[in-house]
Amino acid sequence: MKAIFLIKNGSAQQAFETREIPIPTPTSGQVLIKVDAFGLNFADVMARNGMYKDAPPIPCVLGYDVAGTVEKIGEEVTHLKVGNRVTAMTRFGGYAEYAITDARATAIIPETIDAATATALTTQYCTAYFSAAEMVNLHPGNKVLIHSGAGGVGTALIQFAKYKQCEIFSTAGSEEKIKYLKQLGVHHPINYQTHDFEKEVKKITNEKGLDVIFDAVGGKSVKKGFRSLAAGGRIICYGASDMTNKNLWGKLKAAIGFGFYHPVMLMMPSKAMIGVNMLSVADQHPQILQRCLTEVVKLTASGVFKPTVGKVFEASAIADAHEYLEKRKSMGKVAIQW
Ligand SMILES: NC(=O)c1ccc[n+]([C@@H]2O[C@H](COP(=O)([O-])OP(=O)(O)OC[C@H]3O[C@@H](n4cnc5c(N)ncnc54)[C@H](OP(=O)(O)O)[C@@H]3O)[C@@H](O)[C@H]2O)c1
Question: pLDDT averaged over the chain?
Fold first, then answer.
């Protein structure tokens, strides 16, 4: 089978090589999937740039999301059959014609969901669902700020907040993305290139502040977000895109920019900070991932979740797809098909 290896950190055009390797065999509890499409995630760009500590050493095959057909099942797998159409989260290894994963990280998808769309459901939609449905409980009327709303996770969070009848604030970095946020139903889209989100939130909420913030930007954005929370407010930190493509000094500045927090500083104003790392959750509690994935597929089938596929690339254009994501051109999911 063909697998796309990351062979070099740095520029996308020199980073990948397609190699022929044997098709893996599933062991107990695992499943082998014939991949029709696999998804890209921002973490892949970070791994390519040598900035993702969970990534395996190079040469390695990246890839968290695949969609395709079950080809073989290992012992003790009871909820899947050969031939099932599935979406699955892979612990790397997704950039390949066949991928192996824990059967609990796999969900059957209806025929109505195409393969490229299905790749959005695993990492991005599960992260959004776990953060918004399990780590916080959104209530109707909650004022919710979603940073990087035009991205894959951002899109999912907006759709979930809309379903929960929240008042949605969301940031993005261009007018094209602001238009996209309006189409998604965001009540207060904020172009952070031209407007300071903290000032905008103050103005719009009459200084009352927000109930929930989802932040994958990190750095100063978290400090400003924390200040923008009302009593009972929660900020969910699930990424640090502000730290990408920066030298050591820039990274240090971004790290300090987060601010320093003592529990008393949370207790007195009644605010909470929550960290989410879906990989850690999937590794330690695969049943949580299974639960989230099942709910995500149900919400997609019922029309609550409508993943946007920003662009689909051929496997041979993997480098272009990485550049597309890295240069912030994407809206929604970027998928690759074989
Ligand atoms: N903790 C977890 O388990 C988990 C799981 C999945 C994803 N994540 C994180 O969530 C974030 C979104 O992931 P995604 O897959 O939805 O990514 P995505 O679709 O590529 O969206 C990322 C968005 O981040 C914004 N951005 C801010 N700084 C950037 C930078 N330096 N380079 C490129 N884009 C930048 C861009 O929006 P603007 O142009 O509007 O700024 C871009 O649209 C990433 O930080 C990712 O690492 C975390």
Answer: 95
- pLDDT, residue 27, reads 97
Tens digit of pLDDT for each residue in 110-140? 999 999 999 999 999 999 999 999 999 999 9
Using the predicted structure, report yes or no on whether residue 53 has a pLDDT greater than 80: yes
Residue among 153, 169, 237 to mutate when testing ligand 1 (max atoms within 8 A of CB): 153
How far apart are the CA of 148 and the centre of ligand 1, in A? 7
Q: How far is the CA of 80 from the centre of ligand 1 (A)?
A: 32
The domain ranges of the chain are: 2-120+308-337, 125-278
Which CATH code fits 125-278? 3.40.50.720
> Check: CATH 3.90.180.10 for 2-120+308-337?
yes
What pTM does this model have? 0.95
180 Cα–ligand 1 center, Å: 16
At 246 the pLDDT is: 82
Per residue, what are the HEC states of the chain?
A: CEEEEECCCCCHHHHEEEEECCCCCCCCCEEEEEEEEEECCHHHHHHHCCCCCCCCCCCECCCCEEEEEEEEECCCCCCCCCCCEEEEECCCCCCECEEEEEHHHEEECCCCCCHHHHCCCCHHHHHHHHHHHHHCCCCCCCEEEECCCCCHHHHHHHHHHHHCCCEEEEEECCHHHHHHHHHHCCCEEEECCCCCHHHHHHHHCCCCCEEEEEECCCCHHHHHHHHCEEEEEEEEECCCHHHCCCCHHHHHHHHHHCCCCCHHHHHCCCCEEEECCHHHHHHHCHHHHHHHHHHHHHHHHCCCCCCCEEEEEEHHHHHHHHHHHHCCCCCCEEEEEC
